[in-house]
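@channel anyone free to eyeball this complex?
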Amino acid sequence: MIELRDVRKVFNQGRHNELWAVRGVTLDLEPNRVTVLKGPSGSGKTTLLSMIGALARPTAGRISLDGRLISNLPERFMTEVRRSTFGFVFQRFNLIRGLTVLENVMLPAYPLAPDYGDLRSRALGLLAQFAMESKSADRVEWLSGGEAQRTAICRALINEPRILIADEPTANLDSKLSRELVGLLGDLLDLGKTVLVASHDPLVFESSRVSRVVEMRDGQLAGESSC
Amino acid sequence: MREWLRRQRYLIDYSLSALARRPGKHLGLLLVYTLIVFLLASVMLFTQSLRREAALVLAESPEIILQRQVAGRHDLMPIAYLDKIGSIRGVGTKYGRLWGYFYDPPVRANYTLMVPPAAASQTADPGPGQIAIGAGIARTRGLAVGDYLSLRSARGEPFSFRVASVLSHETELVSSDLILLSEDDFRRFFDFPPDRVTDIVLGVRNPLEVRKVAEKLSLALPDTRPILREEILRTYDAVFGWRQGLVFVLLGGTLLAFVIFAWDRASGLSGEERREIGILKSIGWETGDVLRMKFWEGAILSLIAFFFGYLLAYLHVFYLSAALFEPVLKGWAVLYPDFRPIPFVDGLQVATLFFFTVFPYTVATIVPIWRAAVTDPDAVMR
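replying in thread with the prediction:
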């Protein structure tokens, strides 16, 4: 369970371009569900996701994970939480060019120093699960949008996180690939994962695999619906 | 410990791939870096081996050389002085030496003519009308064993000597311009007075007594000057040190240019690299992991450059006789010895060079990366 209590985030505080991206969000996110944060561009979805995923700290408020406060941890512990709990799928995939698909997938596990053979077989297993096995030796810059997206999902899952965070995952995909992706996110639910998605794509938040849609506008919660 | 090693292996693996992904940037840096190490290491290796060579050669030389002086200038030494030295305690061997210089106009070079001392049994007297010549003279005059060398004597008469042997290459640093001849030939050629020698050398058995013996000599023979072996060694050392310093000053500018170049190349993180650091942090790498990875990147580059630079310098100095520095470091002789230094590597010297090349580069790379690595990873979300 993730609990957010009066979470706020400001950028450029005290300057002429000060921006309150998130203004007092209080929210409980249940495990083993696909939750979508829906809202127009600039509504604060991405900022909220990055704070939930321990990528950034809130300016004010508290975020807890299974009762443990994670919003005020020192950087080292935040990294530890991020590494062991969350997997990220970014809007622009953020794969590292010049490396192969397999290397990109294995990358988050390097600092944990697992046995190389185990890591490799785990990564190949994930790639097989997402029909990417044949591309494992290809460089990521040669991949299509859909393939890059699936590689990014495999990378997000390599450390076996409980929670997967996806930021606008369909922004660079056509309708067919977007539907495919929503299906894949639904499959993760079957694997016992919790999925948090920020999207303003109806194909995502209208999908039957989505359990809950939280609407945001101007950094605040604007409504909610359960599916 | 095993986990630590495995983590370093993963980081090194990633660093190697990062180096391979930007070949243009890293290859240029590697080339310049290797060149700098090569230049510095060449100077260090060469002067070090010259010093060592000189020390080895001088180790065989007598403890004290006694020269006579008239009006502060070197003058010929009466043989009778050998008797005056007589019974100074501690003196082992003592004998007069005959040697001098000869300017050979056709090749515009100075030769050293010397009578092999009877005490120094390793070089036999070549016999009347015969000479042994250094390799430098053999090269310059195109002489081989059996050929004749004609020189004009002090009285203006031509003297022909038959070359009986060419001196060994191993001693070329000191024997390149040397001609060994018999005492009679020497005296006749230079019209040298029969009761004189050039100087006197003394062997002292106990090294602690050398200074005391020199002191007694100065008192007993006030018109002479004792020259100690340790003084010659010190002079050699100073001369080589001075020349090394001169080259280092000249290289200083190059070194500075390299530091600026390395700083610019290594520290100027491209947008792509910043993005990469952001991605690594967002997928669970700590700031420390990023720094360690970048440290390995710099260390690998430094070590390769250091290894190849040093190896090239080693080949340059010990196999090509330091062709680049010969004119500056070897001396002012016209007959340059074809000097092949004995391969020798000093651990402390390697460590010094390593510290002054690898350490600044590593620091230059780590600082800006640290600045980029401590930024919040959420930047990649935008």
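from a first look: The longest strand of chain B covers residues 158-166.
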